[in-house]
Description:
The protein is of the alpha+beta class and 498 residues long. It has three domains: 3-280, no CATH class; 301-434, Protein Transport Mog1p, Chain A (3-Layer(aba) Sandwich); 444-497, Membrane-bound Lytic Murein Transglycosylase D, Chain A, CATH 3.10.350. The chain is 40% helix and 21% strand. The chain is built from 18 helices and 19 strands. It has helices spanning 9-24, 51-68, 76-91, 124-127, 133-148, 151-163, 165-170, 176-182, 186-190, 195-212, 217-237, 256-266, 277-284, 350-358, 417-429, 436-441, 458-463, 471-478; strands at 34-36, 43-45, 101-105, 112-115, 119-123, 288-289, 297-299, 302-305, 310-313, 319-322, 327-330, 336-343, 365-372, 375-386, 389-401, 404-413, 432-433, 445-451, 492-497. The strands form five sheets. A seven-stranded antiparallel sheet has the order 10-11-12-16-15-14-13, sandwiched between helices. Strands 7-8-9-17 form a four-stranded antiparallel sheet. A hairpin with a 4-residue loop joins strand 8 (302-305) and strand 9 (310-313).
Amino acid sequence: MTFLSLTPARSLGARICRRLLPVVLLAPVVSACVTQNPATGGQDFTPFMSPEKEVIVGAEEHPKMLKQFGGVYDDPEIGGYVASVGGRLAAHSERADLQFHFTVLNTPAVNAFALPGGYIYISRGLLALANSEAELASVLGHEIGHVTGRHSAQRYNRSVMLGLGSAILGAVARNRDVSQLAQMGSELYLKSHSRDQEHQADELGIRYLARTGYNTQSAVAFLRTLQADTALSRAIAGKQGKDPATSIFSTHPRTAERVQRTATETAGANGNAPDLRARLLDKIDGMIYGDDPAQGLIRGRIFFHPKLGFTFTVPKGFRLTNTPRAVLAEDRSGARIILDHEPEQWRGSLSRYLTNKWGRKLRLNDVEPVNISGMQAATGSTRVKGKSGPLDLRLVAIRFDRKTIMRFLFVSPVARTARLDEDFRRTAFRFRKLAEGERNEIRPLRLRIVTVGRHDTVESMAAEMPFEDFQVARFRVLNGLGPDERLKTGQRAKTISE
Length: 498
């Protein structure tokens, strides 16, 4: 049963508010639990999160989002540009009174999301895929739609209602579940939206595009680019049937279905309006592409961290992934390498560090001290149960400096341990500190805007990009080109270089 579909919903919701809220003690005073939503035309039943509370929650969660997703991309011109586009869209929404906040996140992950209260985020990884201002606006409009549709408030309310079922029935105000639910944070807001909410955000986003004067067909074009990027990411990772965790579709589900439905809805709506391609390309020219040096850089099988000052190389067949918490490498047969670091002033031997701290819950065998590139280190191994069978683990701790211990964890299926042993050993023993001159020579990749010449082709321009694989596919996705689409002399295109 849903209260929203019933005619007497307001009176029923009000009765629930009067009886429920005093029991769970989550809201001191509520004037009305059911409110009319000017954006959707429907009624919102959100007793646990009022519009005023949404603003407070957004402000509280904002610093957490910055910490989790690489912080703000440090380019005021790009940040101001995105905020100006988003601001014009928000001004044409039903919540023009709300103070929206638009943030470009310093991460290569392709994603965008919104918090309650008008906090909207877009990654520079997603921004790099846009091929016009209208395409950028389609993403921002969609996220504004999630805010004006109050989708986070609805999801929060539903979670509290489900979680407090036993507490409500028992009328136990001091139930521990209440305090736990009251502390639900960013994980709730980053979960994927429902199909209805996604469809509603599509509709609202298209509405705001049209009102602001953008070409609404750009929403279709960009969804297709995002769909192609997800397929490419899956192919690069060597996975089948599952979107990568960093895909925008992990929080905004449905790909082909959304493309087709959006195409139908936008037919004839502002189809001849400008897409402002040149303006966007001018703004993103020179933007960092991929990893930021401050967070570490991947060059094929080599990982560099200029800021912390180290480098290492993974074996052939392993693909590196950089995350805020660790560097990961994985092959297609389930073997993994994980490197992280711990700010630890450990005074004892590193062998004792392995047995008494890092590996204290494991029965480590063959623990011994070693020397890695002139640094004190220790290693030990053990066998554990994995989901797909037994796994061998090798731990390597390296005293990087007085305040830092670098840690390698090598994971291999038991049947492959002998074959991988030498490769893992080389990876560990080739870990080294970067010389000061090396740090300054390591530069990030950047997105460049170039003019296509008479003899330029997709293949020739793709071959110049610094990637070892999928060069043509990367170039096509980056420029929103279809499988058979060709470049035209004089057009502007995106490429990647140092």
